[in-house]
């Protein structure tokens, strides 16, 4: 048993191996009676006799080897080059809401650069009283705040517009992470430079070759945007913008400029590459929406799912997933086992927090019959996560970004799950 | 002014005039005009920010071929998965619209700004203002938007009309979607029947993680294995630890160079068998004039020459296309040489 489950595989073949090894005993519901004593209990084990590692072995730790499949993954065919590309958070294998930095998705336009704190400068210029330059040390002297926010790429679930395509929650919904940020409100920095009355927008750009500039309306810039330098208590990782990134709560991840080097107050949107040719949404008639900043309410069942099949047979089953909204807090999540005919309300692990991931559970009993699992999020504005059909009725098939449709997993009698679309 | 009063006032003004008063922490220092000029290179949609200069289509054709065509194609039609910059006209309301500068981009300022600050990929900020004007003119020409004798300059920039300038609306989800999808949702008998209409497994485009990991693991295992008798003497002579170190340093080169099985030319030539080879000899790759001149003189890449080149690319070879700042550390140079020597032709 222990051998079989050591290297949990994410693939179908791995699943089938695991299911076969689990054997008939596991399929019988209720407490199975042991025929022979478990050697793991009755025989002394090496870890109980010998010694483990000392405290000087691992100055900074990584997950234990048995968890080495809980990693970010890339989809090769998606982009021309891994330098300007995206990978996916293994949400199927995580629980709770905080994403560890080491497996939080990355999206770069010119690669993850190495920028030392000593070489870091932040400029604020444009329609301000005094254009200023800050060092990293300067930023640490402003009053700072802590907030937990999700960061979702606008293209999350984008490959699923035309139809069910990628078989795994990591790939369909993994362009998201959720961290506790420490940083200075952008408002404080704007105040330090003094914004002129004709300043209506803030243009932010990064220090990498792409610079990834985006225009943010002044109202949002003065509201809740953070100039962040810590995530989950420690320095940002290189791939997330070390030493300083922008945090734009509830808004598409592309605006969370990494390696933030310049803030410019302008009288109009700059209309940069990232807010015209990309991150705009083409509708059926060929017109395109721009400035679609907010991420609408969305949810997904992370387990069971194609990469996280049911391997324990019938009986108690925890259905679990994530829900979030860029327009406020999640207030309710419903789960359907029959493709949306009937719904039951799931339990939220904690009351929803604004613009942060919410974990939901449906503690249930599985009778071994197939399920068409769905989840449906509601947020504090009363918005209800739409179906893919509803989205397509408004937007057509040619959108890429902002696909927040209800996801369906077809869970089969053997516990295996597949990404499907239903009528 | 007290902090409290300042915040109250600022909040009150935020809606109408968005006035924010100067802060009082006294942190940071005034930015110098030269510093602002160096970093503030954005171009506004009305052309504000454009430097003086000009470039014509024919010059653009040459500069594009030299700097851009490796990814975007000779006619801006795109290579493989790299962005297509031309074509796609009148496809926006079709299935799978082709979004190019000509068919989609609403502002020409975006092209100039992006090429100037971020292109070529792996060698950003290496083009002169006139070259950026010329490339922009060539992209317009590739999209049938200007004639072949057109010259683009800061003076006529604002006159160019982009075909899809009127094709955008501001986010209207609040009007078109939110009311529709708000309210108490259905809990029972929501549908008569449910049928599976599409399965991801039929398409089968999900990466097979097990296979991918196995494939990745193999060459690594070979690289760190005991040296075996090999036909290339260089391979056996090199220290495996140094090769491994070189693999790490090579990350700095990967944006432009591929090496190993199936390596292809990208912004830079593929590097299989580069050690011991005559410079400028990868067939089909467009080298700089500077490199070809050195090749004619008989330059051969070996540990010594490649280290000298990498230490200071532009110093070693004035006019090189390689937009790399250089590897200062001699250890890194040796590691790269070792790593590259582990790949035969």
TrEMBL record, chain A:
<dbReference type="InterPro" id="IPR000572">
    <property type="entry name" value="OxRdtase_Mopterin-bd_dom"/>
</dbReference>
<keyword id="KW-0479">Metal-binding</keyword>
<dbReference type="Pfam" id="PF03404">
    <property type="entry name" value="Mo-co_dimer"/>
</dbReference>
<dbReference type="InterPro" id="IPR019546">
    <property type="entry name" value="TAT_signal_bac_arc"/>
</dbReference>
<dbReference type="GO" id="GO:0006790">
    <property type="term" value="P:sulfur compound metabolic process"/>
</dbReference>
<dbReference type="InterPro" id="IPR008335">
    <property type="entry name" value="Mopterin_OxRdtase_euk"/>
</dbReference>
<dbReference type="InterPro" id="IPR036374">
    <property type="entry name" value="OxRdtase_Mopterin-bd_sf"/>
</dbReference>
<dbReference type="GO" id="GO:0020037">
    <property type="term" value="F:heme binding"/>
</dbReference>
<feature type="domain" description="Oxidoreductase molybdopterin-binding">
    <location>
        <begin position="115"/>
        <end position="271"/>
    </location>
</feature>
<dbReference type="InterPro" id="IPR030835">
    <property type="entry name" value="Sulfite_DH_SoxC"/>
</dbReference>
<dbReference type="GO" id="GO:0043546">
    <property type="term" value="F:molybdopterin cofactor binding"/>
</dbReference>
<dbReference type="GO" id="GO:0008482">
    <property type="term" value="F:sulfite oxidase activity"/>
</dbReference>
<dbReference type="InterPro" id="IPR005066">
    <property type="entry name" value="MoCF_OxRdtse_dimer"/>
</dbReference>
<dbReference type="InterPro" id="IPR014756">
    <property type="entry name" value="Ig_E-set"/>
</dbReference>
<dbReference type="GO" id="GO:0030151">
    <property type="term" value="F:molybdenum ion binding"/>
</dbReference>
<keyword id="KW-0500">Molybdenum</keyword>
<keyword id="KW-0732">Signal</keyword>
<feature type="signal peptide">
    <location>
        <begin position="1"/>
        <end position="34"/>
    </location>
</feature>
<dbReference type="Pfam" id="PF00174">
    <property type="entry name" value="Oxidored_molyb"/>
</dbReference>
<dbReference type="InterPro" id="IPR006311">
    <property type="entry name" value="TAT_signal"/>
</dbReference>
<protein>
    <submittedName>
        <fullName>TMAO/DMSO reductase</fullName>
    </submittedName>
</protein>
<keyword id="KW-0560">Oxidoreductase</keyword>
UniProtKB/TrEMBL annotation, chain B:
<keyword id="KW-0479">Metal-binding</keyword>
<protein>
    <submittedName>
        <fullName>Cytochrome c2</fullName>
    </submittedName>
</protein>
<feature type="domain" description="Cytochrome c">
    <location>
        <begin position="241"/>
        <end position="344"/>
    </location>
</feature>
<dbReference type="GO" id="GO:0020037">
    <property type="term" value="F:heme binding"/>
</dbReference>
<dbReference type="InterPro" id="IPR036909">
    <property type="entry name" value="Cyt_c-like_dom_sf"/>
</dbReference>
<dbReference type="Pfam" id="PF00034">
    <property type="entry name" value="Cytochrom_C"/>
</dbReference>
<keyword id="KW-0408">Iron</keyword>
<keyword id="KW-0813">Transport</keyword>
<dbReference type="InterPro" id="IPR009056">
    <property type="entry name" value="Cyt_c-like_dom"/>
</dbReference>
<dbReference type="GO" id="GO:0046872">
    <property type="term" value="F:metal ion binding"/>
</dbReference>
<keyword id="KW-0732">Signal</keyword>
<feature type="domain" description="Cytochrome c">
    <location>
        <begin position="55"/>
        <end position="143"/>
    </location>
</feature>
<keyword id="KW-0349">Heme</keyword>
<dbReference type="InterPro" id="IPR002327">
    <property type="entry name" value="Cyt_c_1A/1B"/>
</dbReference>
<feature type="signal peptide">
    <location>
        <begin position="1"/>
        <end position="22"/>
    </location>
</feature>
<keyword id="KW-0249">Electron transport</keyword>
<dbReference type="GO" id="GO:0009055">
    <property type="term" value="F:electron transfer activity"/>
</dbReference>
